[in-house]
Structure formats: structure tokens, C-alpha cells
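hi!! sorry for the late reply, been swamped w classes. u asked for the two structures so here they r. pasted raw, havent cleaned anything up. first the sequence of the first protein and right below it the C-alpha cells
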Amino acid sequence: MKTIQGFMLIDVDVAALNNAGNDPASKLDNAIVTKKIRKNGKEYPYVSGQAFRFWWRNSLEQHYNWNMSPVIREKKIAFTEAEPMKYPDDDVFGYMRAGKKEIKDPETGKTKKVNVTLTRVSPLKNSAVIGVAYNPIVQNWASMTRQEGDAVPFGIDEYCSVMKGMFSLNTEMVGTFSDTNKTGFRNINEDMKKLYLEQDTELINDPFAQDKEGKPLQLVRMNDEIRLKRIKDTILALKTLSGGAKQTTNLADVTPKLIVLANFKSGNHPFSHLAKEERGVAKFSIEALEEVISEYANQFEGNIFVGKRKGFMDEIEEKLKNLADDDKIKFGPINAIIDEFVKTIKLG
């Protein structure tokens, strides 16, 4: 398995990036609570993995002209078109389209329902984005005062936080589709497979799955040019991430202020503990990065790329430059590092 492993820190002030509805504990009639999670007896704000993916999709649509799969709603469920060759987001972000179809049994002549559900495990996996250091979430009083009469008060949760998130992109899965009748692996049906093979695709052997006779199952794979573009666009879109609740009055920049990227030979994520809390302050651990470089030396392909925005954690800049001087990492400004990393992405 070949993956791209990434870690990022964002830095927001007076933000409310992902809210969770009304706050029943508030004394105000109208109060909104932000999403938070408890760890070690303290509450930390977080952005759900789903919301993070929503920002990511928007960036790809707005800045990289991705033709997004339409969302279809039926009663209480919603799903995308589940056409991974036509829609790059179905390919990269995965899908589940449940359904049953009535067919006539050739032996009995009776109609029966068969499962035609299509599912795809997402090649792109990501964590939630969570605060690194404890900094109390504050519910502030606000009001609507433009109307005649009394002000209408409401409460909003707000916080300042350095927040961490990580992601993993399986580059071998992108543009590669299975029709194996197994949950998560039946990406396409027989008709789609036939149609895809009439286009610019090829059949390849699945290195991990076999049929009842012990023969490798076959996968449908798109051409490398399209696959590589989808992979590169996905990483480049990190430069233009935007989103979050309360942007009108609590504008927050959610682009990475520090990012770590690497080509990796497995699905294990090596960067999960690069940030820590130290005396109430979020810190990036150079020691943890050095240990990862040493511990996983045989798993990295090429250099580890670290980008950092000037003005953010400037106290670690010299140490990162020293690591770069030792040829262990490539270090520079965020966008330049992302661009440089993307040039190293290869298939095969």
C-alpha cells in the first residue's frame, strides 16, 4: 500500500467553527453551543471529520473545478450518484448508495428483490480537528438590536485555539474500482464495469483478494494521468481551505499554519503525536518528529516536507532549518512546501 500521510495545525481566534445546536444549560432563550469533547477531565473544541471533509470538497470544487457528484434524497436517506469515474469526489471521498431491485427468477418465474447497493471505502481518510491545549470555551452574550423595541439577546460559544488534524490518502485506491460483492468493495456493478472497460481503463489483478479458486480478483483502473491529477488536486486544495460556522462575525482562517507531508509505504499514520500541550500552550514537538523519522525510516519514500507560516510558532523555526540542513526534511513556507511535495507524487 502506498499512501500520502499528512498532519496539520490551524490557529484561530474568537472562533466557533462547528456548532452543535441549542444549549439547554444556558439561561438565555436562544444560545448556541459549539462542538466539544472531553479529554483528561477538560473540554476541547473540535471540528467534526465530516465538516473538515465539507471544507475540503468546497475547496476542490471552487479552486480546482471538480465536477461534484449530485446528491439525491429519498425520504430519510441521501446519497451521491455513486459514479466514481465521472465524478472525482465519488472516487476520492467514497460513497454508499443503498438500494434493491426487483427481478424475475428465471426458474420460478416469480419476482424477487436483490441487493444493488454500491459502496466505496474512501481513499481519503481524515481525523476530526481538535484543540491541542486547554483554553476554556466561553459563552458570550450577544444581541440583535436593529429592530424597534427591546434587544433580542442570544448566546454564542467562542474560543481561541491551536487545533490539530491528520489525514491519509491511499494513492493506489484512487481511480481503481472493484465489483467484489462485499460491503465497501462493491464500488461498481456489472453494467458500470462493462461501460468503464469501453473507455480509457484497464483490468488489473487485486493484490489482496482472491476468488473461490484462489485466482486474483480483478479491478478496473483509470489511466494514470487522471488518477495523478485527482491525487495532486486533493493535496493542493489544502492551500485554499475555508469554512466554519459564524464566518460573518467570527472570520477564521482555517488554512494550515503548519503542515507535515510524506509519501509512505503503509496505511499506519506516523504523525499523530507531533503536537502536545505544555503548561497550557500548544507546542509542536521537534523531538517527536525526529523520533518518527528514525522509527519509520524504512517506510518513508523520499523526504518529509514541513511547511510553516511566519508568525506561527517561530520558536521552532531554527530547529526545523537544522533538520533541513541535515537533509532529513524539506522545510519552507506552507504553500511552497505543498507545491514542492506534490511534484514528488508518483504512481506505480
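now the second protein. again sequence first, C-alpha cells right under
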Amino acid sequence: MTLDFTAWATAHQVSFEKVLHDVLPSSSISPGHLHKAMRYAVLDGGKRVRPLLAFAAGEMLGADQARVNISAAAVELIHAYSLVHDDMPCMDDDVLRRGKPTCHVQYDEATALLVGDSLQTLAFQLLSEFKLNDDPQQQLNMIKLLAQASGSRGMAGGQAIDLLSTGKQLSLPELENMHIHKTGALIRAAVLLGAQCAAVTPVQLAKLDHFGKCIGLAFQVVDDVLDAEADTATLGKTAGKDADNDKPTYVTLLGVSAARDMAHNLHSEAVASLVEFGVAARRLRELANFIVLRAF
């Protein structure tokens, strides 16, 4: 019997929590305080959208589950590190994340900084320590992919643009460029890393990359709508933070209605890129629906 999407996602979220539990250093290992804070920042929270995208892409192509687990863990560790750093006073200065106090509030700023540093390096340790593809060159490409998606040409670069854009009015292309880097790069990497745990052709990778690009942008558009309309309890983080910080968003630029239309258009384009994969792409299509329809 084929699981419906909710059951499929829940099963992966539960099993993936054990994967994260196992790859993170135990708090009983020195330095215990740092390891405890790392586990606090990663475990028991979040929808695990990026790992689910990796699982869906891997399953579509018949990848070994153990390999996808490690790739998904690496992506989630990078994501968690970015949240820890983004929430710090020198960045967004937030006090709530995933329904609990942010890492620097629960511990302290210095510990939070080290948590982010340590989660980032652990991600690359995982990608280099485990065999994720039969071709060593392909595995090196996977490491390079995550590095680019995380650094100045990806997520960190997008955050830098975001900080410089506070209080400014960006054009739509400028806003898209920021979020292609800040949010989209890691979502694209999640899809591609899951796929590259299997045999995948360059044409297939290009299709999946386009899917990831479109759904990554849609994810941010929907986030902006939710930030404007949902409450703190629903979000698990401080609602209205972007508006309070005078940050450019799709809602401030386009308005809620046009932002919703943009998310729908991006969703349609993402799903269209999966046509050649047929029914095997079911979970990716369902994830695209989940990402976009959570605000509608």
C-alpha cells in the first residue's frame, strides 16, 4: 500500500530525527556544553522540508536510503547553523525559533556562534566521511555543490544582500536575486544532493535544478505572506519581524494578492519541470503543493 503524503512525510520526519540524533555529537562527549547546544539547535523542531526534498528526489531515482539520509542530514545541519546565526543580535536579533527560545537566548551569544560554526563543519565531515555515490568524482561534486550553496555565492551571500537591503526598496529582480541565494540555494542543493545519491543524468539534474529554483523562490514568497498574515504561535517564530525591521519582502513590493499569484506561478513552473519523470515524481509534486499551499 502506498502511503498518502502526510503519512509518508511523518514517517520520514520520525526516522530522520534518529539520523540527526546519531550524527550529532553526544553531550556526554567533551566539550559537553557545546555539543548540548548543538543538539538543542537541531533536534525536535522544524518541518524538515529540505530533507524531505532530498528524500523525494532520491526515492524517485532509486537511491539507497542510507546515502540519502547522510546527504539530507548535511543539508539540515547547514540550515540549522544558518538559523542560529541569523537569530543572533548582530543579524536579525530574534528570540524565538521553532517554538522555543533561540540558541543565543537559551545559552549565550558566544556559544551560539560556535554552534553554528560546528554544525557547518559537521555537515562537510558527513559528506566526506560516508560513501554517497559509487563515483568518487560525483561525491566531490556533491561536496562542492553544498559548499557553493552555503557560501558567499549562495546562502551567506543572500544574507549579506538582505542585511544591506534593510530600509531600501528593491525591484522584483533584485529581490529575486537575494532570495535565489539566501533561501533558494539550499533548497536546490537538497533536491540535487538527494538525486546524486543515485544514478542521474545531466538532463535529469538540469530538470531537478529548475524545480528546486522555482520551488525555492516560491517557498520564500509564501514565507513573506505568512510573516505578514500568520501569528507567532502558528509560525513558531516572531510574526511580523520583517515589517518591524523594515526589510523588503514580496508582500511589501507586490501586495499579498500579487505575491500569492507569484507563488502559484512558480509552483506551476516547478511542477512542469517534473513531467518527464512521470509518476515517480509524485512526492516532489506533493512537496511542491505543501510548500505553496500552506499559506492558502
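hope this helps!! also noticed smth abt the second:
Strands lie at 96-97, 100-101.
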